[in-house]
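Pasting two entries for a bug report.
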Amino acid sequence: MMDICILGSGVAGSTIANLLSKKHSVHVFDKARGPGGRSSNKRFKTNLSFDHGVQYISPKSKAFIKFTEKLFKKRILKTWNGNHLDFTFEKTWDRYFISGSATVMSLKGTYEGGVDSRSGQNDYGITEAYDHPESDFYNYGLLPNHRDFKANVFGGYDITDNISFGYSFRYESARYYSCQGALPTYYRTDGPTGGLPSTFYGNGFSYNFCHGNIVPRGQAFKGDELYSLDTSFNFKIDDSSFIQINMFNPFNLKGVDQYQNTGEVSAGEVWERYQQPLSYVSPRQIVLEYVKTF
């Protein structure tokens, strides 16, 4: 028998600990207050709790599928079909092909993955949201990756044996934004958290309250509808070399792909940068490439 130390009590760490404990002495260490990692449950008060971790899993490997089947039988897991509808198409002719997809969705929840657009979190190891249950107030809603509708079309055409043309078109409906601000005084003293937190979530202005009002996730304002078109021409010189001209956004389509959704940086005051653009669609670019294989 071996003495084994496992760091982290998430799904992977807990599973390994369970398997190894049948033949070895296992000790699990985690920096959080409880086990579960990104699938843990948060408790506060005496009879209130909520799940705010991973929304779903998609087993791909045979080993993982077999593992989840056991959890289904024990009623630990259940099937989630999701609220989305996908259409795909593909057609090929002698010199031409076209392929594409269209998606209608409703992506709601409280968890965005390893990234949290409210606090700027971009590390799976950060437990900030778990340590601040007040950060989850009114946090259920349309997630940043939600779009009412998405469409992608790409294809290509062999003009001659040595010249070909390709294109890619994408459309996304508008993103739904939140308004982040300070936690109102009520929630700091007499609210469900039971008192003033010793530290604030994010920078202190990452809550679903704005200018003293409740603003549930994704209900503040809408961004731009976005279009993109890229094209390319390929000129074959011989069997080992070719020239390619890539034109990104050839019609110089414009749009804002991200807006500022922090509404205040001092309690009760509207921040002047709120709803202002943070980044734009990339402008027209033309790239010339010469490729030679050896």
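Entry 2 (this is the one that rendered wrong in the viewer):
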Amino acid sequence: MRRKRLLTLGGAICLALILAALPFMSACAPREGAPGEAIQLKIAGFVPWGNPNLLGLEDLMERVAEKSNGKLTIEWVGGPEAIPPMKILDAVQTGVIDIGRYSAPFYEAVFPEGIAWANAWMRPWEARETGLYDIMNELHQEKLGLYLLGSTSGACWYGLSSNVRLESLDDFAGVRIRAGAKAFMEAFQALGASTLYTPTAEQYSAIERGLFDAHTNALGTVMGFSLYEVTKYFMEMPMANYPGTYIMNLDSWNRLPTNLQNVLIEASLENELWLQPEWQRLEKEWKQICLDGGMEIISLPPDEAEQLETMIFNVLWNELRAKAPENFNRLYQVVVGNGYGHPPISGPYPPK
């Protein structure tokens, strides 16, 4: 509990220092907003409006409008009905939209450095304090032409839901698992399971048709797509920390007057701090809804849970080393060197 209080205090101090620096940043910058000029940024998400995975977006939009006195607003364009989830990256890069509320696994193929996030069990302000955010923002700009506004890292974790009772690693043999990340696929295959991928929005009907026995999803996804209605068990063990991200077209960012860039930075920082306790509060409610809907919480023995975690942990780092060797060392160091390289085996998340 003391560590949790210290981390929260550290996050608040970090926010205060950054916010205090913003006026000086503005004074040194060459650009200012034109008096009375209003700018609207368009944003799309990988899930529909109202889905729990968009938690925090409305808060961010309100903060931006309030802090800019209406000179900068963010307009919701739509979810998958407007832009397919796998096309959001292209839409942001080409300027069809200004901002994408996305998730790191969706663009892992072109940005393997995002794998480091999955093993970085830290809250957003910890990512900023340790320098991980700065590295990620730098790489987003260099490799993708995007500005990384912020993330929801540390807000929720991936778990395994199943219609087969999995109480031992031996139970995985022959189980068909829908896995959304390569690391999960490799780890489960090593245990004798078969893996496949199904788009998030199609999982409910796929489960009903018996196309797979288990699936990896954050609890917010289980809740948001009502997967608890067609799934029996939820394994309460954090498996990875894939974050949501706010990615912005770099030209759209650079065109903003400095004072409005600062509004976005300030609003993002405050939004990240607001989001964490809100996730924790809602996850308790969602878990109860899932239990009331008939799901049962199961777990592996501690030693086997640690074995599975270590398998996933190693697969992720090995994949990053193979795909982005030029950036591996500094990402590994900033995560593991700061003590955030492996999740807790049991207990609540975020860890105390």
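Dev reply: Rendering is fixed now. As a check, the viewer should reflect this: The mean pLDDT is 84.
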